[in-house]
Write a structure and sequence with these properties.
mainly alpha; 133 residues
Length: 133
């Protein structure tokens, strides 16, 4: 077959900077600015989604506008949109919609995101321990 270029990662980095710099900046600003709201409203939404819990039903009734805001706007702003940008070269705003459609279509994706988060925490801990050793 054909030989693999030796600097494939460097080429990908260059293409990302040249053709998608605006998308990267917009995504970073949007996700960074929304993160504090996403954490607080996401916790309320998690409680409101507990239909079998009386406290969850009360929070869902009181904070229904916060839950709707989270589901319509804040939940879209995630790092999963960057994966769609990388795979299909869509702008960030369109990529958020596509990534959310993929996430809502299959529950296994949420499980994989949770597992990835656990590996990130373990990796950070291992790096921290190795740094002090």
């Amino acid at each position: 077959g054909t030989p693999t270029p030796w600097c494939l990662a460097l080429k990908g980095f260059w293409i990302g900077l040249r053709y998608h710099q605006g998308t990267l900046i917009l995504g970073a600003l949007a996700t960074g600015a929304a993160q504090p709201f996403k954490l607080t409203v996401g916790a309320l939404t998690g409680l409101a989604r507990m239909d079998d819990n009386p406290v969850g039903r009360i929070i869902g009734a009181i904070c229904c506008c916060c839950v709707a805001c989270y589901e319509d706007f804040l939940e879209l702003l995630s790092r999963n949109a960057y994966m769609d940008v990388a795979m299909s070269s869509r702008p960030f705003c369109k990529a958020t919609d596509v990534a959310q459609a993929v996430l809502s279509a299959d529950d296994a994706v949420h499980l994989l995101n949770g597992a990835t988060w656990i590996f990130q925490i373990v990796g950070l801990g291992a790096i921290g321990v190795a740094g002090f050793a």
